[in-house]
Amino acid sequence: MKNPFYYGGVVSEENFCNRKEEIKELKRDILNGINILIYAPRRFGKTSLALFTLEELKKEEKINYIFLDLLGISSKEEFINEYFNALAQALETPVEKAVKFFKDILKIKPSVKVIFDNTGKTKFQLEFSKDELSQTLKDVLTIPLKYTEKGKKICVVFDEFQEIELLGIENEMRSQIQLQSNKVPYIFMGSKKSILKRMFLEKKKAFYKSVKHFQIKEISKKDWVEFIQGKFNKTGKEIDVLYIEKILSITKGFPYYTQQFAYELWELTENKVNNEIFNKMVKLVLEREEDMFAVEWDNLTPNQRKVLKIVIEKGGVHLYDEHLLSKYEIKIGSLRKTLLALLEKDILDKIDNRYYFQDPLFEYWLKNRIY
After folding, report:
1. How does pLDDT run across 339-367, given as a tens digit for each residue?
2. What does the pLDDT read at residue 21?
3. Which long-range contacts (CB under 8 A, 24 or more apart) does 86-91 make?
4. Cα(23)–Cα(363) distance, rounded to whole angstroms?
5. What is the predicted pLDDT for the residue at 110?
6. What is the three-class DSSP state of 272?
7. Is 268 helix (H, G, I), strand (E, B) or coil?
8. DSSP structure class, residue 123
9. Which residues have C-beta within 8 Å of that of residue 294, sequence separation ≥ 6?
10. What pTM was computed for the model?
11. Is 360 helix (H, G, I), strand (E, B) or coil?
């Protein structure tokens, strides 16, 4: 029997737990031409939410979309070609029609190449000189607007958008995107909250006050219980609410981790979940994540390790406890400086006066393996 749970990629409709209100709001904003910033920790489901919403709008023939993940793009030239390819793949077919369309709208007429990758898939590239780079970047960034002038609606999605800081193209992008206001909606996503906040909230930055901040809320316990129990029951297996609550106490409701735990638990269960099966599942998941968490821990400074232990011990509040400062041999100034560093590294986040781990499973691993 096929496992009813899914994790590790973009989630389809049958694997979505709630998000009805977010999808409704996102659809409305996109169709109204609003530029949106979605930031959330890794594994919180932001990419799935955006792509699921856009796929629904595409099926309803209300809008087409372009998606580009900026992670790993390391130069302006690479950005131009990856973005151009994403545009070409999404907007025009067949190949001959796409080449003609782009040659007509690119002012400097760079050579449009059609190549095939290792899997035989078509890929579009532009050939241009260094002197043509600036104009080619501008021309490629204007393609979405040119497309809408043909009477078609599109939305552009940039994932891991914080990476453009390294490319030095913020000003060029903001300039062209500003010209497309109300005509082409843009969705900016990323997991580096500290960088994104700086990019969109600091006055000196190009994208200051240029977007609606779209918050993805936690899925309620009630929704998770109905979702997980429903899938177990439909496949002839049982799980008590107690075990779903145990999952949520570890995953804090992160969709990726919650689906991962439910997936592994379903695989290990023949009839009904019990303590032995649950504990075996948790051990299995932690073993699979061990290498990644160990590397993250090894990359921390001694003071950063101490501060994470203090955050765990104090539940994220009242960290300037003299007893703990003495116990971990760290001074108030160092504690304050280290907390800022951990916020910058997106290991910790802060709500009001409480610090918390952005990755709940990393916190759980620390409690069980290091602390």
Report:
1. 999 999 999 999 888 999 999 999 999 99
2. 87
3. 87/140, 87/143, 87/144, 88/124, 89/122, 89/124, 90/64, 90/65, 90/66, 90/154, 91/64, 91/66, 91/143, 91/147, 91/154
4. 30
5. 63
6. strand
7. helix
8. E
9. none
10. 0.85
11. helix
pLDDT in tens, 258-308: 999 999 999 999 999 999 999 999 999 999 999 999 999 999 999 999 999
- Residue 290's pLDDT is 92
Name the residue type at position 217: K
Closest CA to 207 of 184, 183, 182, 188: 188
336: CB partners within 8 A, 6+ apart: none
How far apart CA 280 and CA 258 sit, in angstroms, is 16
39 beta partners = 190
Q: Rounded distance, CA 243 to CA 181, Å?
A: 48
Tokens representing residue 73 in the block: 């793009």
Residue type at position 357: F
Residue 25 one-letter amino acid: E
Q: Give the residues across from 159 on adjacent strands.
A: 69
The alpha helices in the chain, defined as continuous H runs, are 20-31, 46-59, 76-91, 95-105, 133-148, 164-167, 170-179, 193-201, 221-234, 241-251, 255-268, 275-298, 302-314, 322-327, 332-344, 360-369
| Other Cβ atoms within 10 Å of 337 Cβ, number | 13
Residue written as token pair 């659809």? 27
Low-confidence ranges of the chain (pLDDT < 50): none
Given this model, what pLDDT does residue 171 score?
93
Cα–Cα distances (Å) from 145 to 17, 53, 140, 269, in that order, read: 35, 22, 10, 53
Using only C-alpha atoms, the chain has a radius of gyration, in whole angstroms, of 24
How far is C-alpha 329 from the geometric centre of its chain's CA atoms? 37
- The single residue listed with the structure tokens 């999404």 is 90
Among 287, 278, 75, 50, smallest CA distance to 159 is for 50
In Å, how far are 54, 79, 297 from 73, measured between CA atoms? 24, 6, 26
Tell me what pLDDT residue 66 has: 95
Neighbours of 32 (CB within 10 A): 10
Q: Six-digit token pair at 173?
A: 């992008």
CB 167 within 8 A of CB 75: yes
Strands (E), the chain: 36-39, 64-69, 111-116, 122-127, 154-159, 186-190, 212-214, 348-351, 354-357
